[in-house]
Amino acid sequence: MFNGIIESMGKIKSISPLKGGKEIEISWGKSSELGIDDSISVEGVCQTVVSKTDHSFTVQAVEETLRKTSFHQFQEGMAVNLERSLTLNQRLDGHLVQGHVDTTGTIEAIDEEGANWLFTFSFDDENFGDMVVGRGSIAIDGISLTVARLEKGRFTVAIIPFTYDHTSLHQKKVGDLVNLEFDVIGKYVVQFLQRREDMEQ
Known about the structure:
Structural class: alpha+beta
């Protein structure tokens, strides 16, 4: 479990094929603090540390992860958002994030508004439209954000300068894919209502 507050960015050091998946080595200044089998969020995707050095760690992304997330677009040298899993004595500063990506979205527009940035994303409204709520929480590449504007199949978030500079958002451009994880509480509510409706039919 995570809270969507990015600790810092790492950099993809190497990518190797692995039986339909990929083995990804990431350079990170806090790698020495990780343990083998630790969970870590990489661009919002919960991964397991399979090996490490004092300066880097390695995760293994399976075929399902490559198909469902932006991992298939990873390139050596890319910056990625990193967050270690929560401990019970931590404050919950963002919102509850599982690291289980629901789908990807596409950046439709990036606009400056004063000191802030407005990012607009398109997404699969037919399958996930009920999951997005105006002023509700959403995790984008692992970053806990708030939906500022919502239209059919599109939503906009406002990014403050600190978040823009200290996450991988600063390297994004229009047309790029991002990982979306909808609010877990909202997902349970939607599923409950759908099941109740099915039972009543």
